[in-house]
Amino acid sequence: MPIPNRTPDTTADRTPSPRADVCIVGAGVAGGLVAAQLATAGFDVVVLDAGPRFDRSDDLARMETGLRPVHSLGDVWEMGGARDRYTTAGEVTYPLNDLRVKGVGGTTLAWGGYSPRFHEKDFEMQSRYGLASDWPISYDDLEPYYVRAEEELGVAGNDDNPFVERSAPFQMPAFPPSHTDTLFRDACEELGIAFHSLPKAICSEPYDGRSPCLGYSTCTPVCPSGAKYTGFVHIRKAEKAGARVIDRATVRRLEHGADGKTLEAAVYATPDGSQYRQEARSFVLAAGGVETARLLLLSASDAHPDGLANSSGAVGQNFMDHLYVNSLATLTEPLQQEPIGYVTSQSQEFYDHDDPTPGSVMLTFGNIQPVKPIEVALRGGDAVLREDLDDTIMGNRWGDELLDSLQSRVNSTPGKLAIYGAVEMLPDPDNRITLDRSTTDAFGDPVPNVRLSPDAHARATGEFATEKQREILGALPVPTADISSSNTFGLGAHHMGTARMGDDPEASVVNAELRAHDVDNLFVASSAAFTTGGAANPTLTIAALSLKAADALERELRQG
């Protein structure tokens, strides 16, 4: 079932609306939340997104495409090509397009649904450790917004994490532990390491019109059932409340008035080659950690020669991601369990720390199956123990013969258990997003250049994480033939820090309300605003900050 070859719609009305109350750039989780709140409050909202409005009836075909090893996530979600060009520098050749999606719904169309909160220490790195900078807000300031974000996204979880203070329960119970979870739990208990559930923005029961998880096991790259939250949920709510969403509208620059302090319009291009100006009273940048910085730099003017809202020089600087280190145990016997497609358990035992280094680590526990790529290719891309089930439809095995075949395979394949470690990276001005003027995109604009080099803090933290992973794997209550660890860092594709929050306009881009210091009617709802990155997946914090920005903007709009 290939994805239908749908010709881009060049006939849709992509002309601008009359001057709106709010223009939002980006239709992902951040843009969707802000749009839904403000449209529901009665304001005129226009959302511009560079990508298409995907036909959700194609999700099963996208899933099948994603399962085949010849295809990448870019093939599933139409990423790549002239629109999405970028370059890299620094120590890491950064795979920017591997895990981002441009389109209505944003990168949450392809995320795994992990929804942990940041910790108190993440907001106080300078005060506690003399590292990085403190946020202009505390965990307590953001905690009510975390509660709201969990309600809006629909997060399943249990209140069993001893390291995070909560004021309200989750909306749904956590997914039950798997067989392999019990193995990891026993190992952690032996070592005195806390073991607890991982909150997921995936429905464990019906919620907000969404189906409970049906077990497709393909959260990344696509959830065909709709159980997983995506930004499309709130875009749909925004449109129902009257917001207008324009897809395939690539914003090329933001234009301000004569005073340089007030934005007037977002200039955007459409598939038919037209260029338009969407005027608004206020603007919200919700385009992610890379494109938000790029758009501010592209919007340089006489009043803002180094880029819009960049008198501090901080736009694009302090780019952060989460580094990942992984360790793997090969067992001497089969697990006799098929993976469910996503992690359900974690440990934040090593997140909070007394000394500056090593920094924060978040461990998650998973199980995989030792399937060779050629086997995957030959059976059509199914990466779990299901290929023999095809015989019930296409093969010539039936009854006892089919059952014996299935049991033989399951009972003879050695199991594998993996621990994944998300590692804290500190903000560094040399890790940054800049404009590469030697390379242009489909519209002739300079592309983003991503410069990233892991620092000594991240490396030391990664080594610490690997030691702890190997200790846990060594304590498993099942025979282990081998324990191995990755020799290189992986990346979380969590783009953070390029338009950071702060009280000092000379060292930051936006204030505690997410308003730009230099531009009165510009807000940034994005991981770009993160001051530090912690070790927790960023989406829930993006959502919480977006709701905070929406509150500030709503108050301002009501005041006229």
From TrEMBL:
Q: Which cofactor does it need?
A: FAD
Q: Which residues form the Glucose-methanol-choline oxidoreductase C-terminal domain?
A: 427-545
Per the record's keyword annotation, is Oxidoreductase included, yes or no?
Answer: yes
Look up keyword rRNA processing and say if it applies.
no
Tell me the InterPro entries matching this sequence: FAD/NAD-bd_sf, GMC_OxRdtase_N, GMC_OxRtase_C, P2Ox-like
**Highest taxon above the source species:** Archaea
| Family matches, as Pfam families | GMC_oxred_C, GMC_oxred_N, NAD_binding_8
Q: Which keywords, in A-to-Z order, does the entry hold?
A: FAD, Flavoprotein, Oxidoreductase
Which residue numbers delimit the Glucose-methanol-choline oxidoreductase N-terminal domain? 102-323
One function term, GO molecular function aspect: flavin adenine dinucleotide binding
Xref: PANTHER family: PYRANOSE 2-OXIDASE (PTHR42784:SF1)
What family is it from?
Answer: Belongs to the GMC oxidoreductase family.
Q: What is the name listed in the Swiss-Prot or TrEMBL entry for this protein?
A: Choline dehydrogenase-like flavoprotein
Task: Give the organism, scientific name.
Answer: Haloferax elongans ATCC BAA-1513
Its lineage opens with: Archaea, Methanobacteriati, Methanobacteriota, Stenosarchaea group, Halobacteria
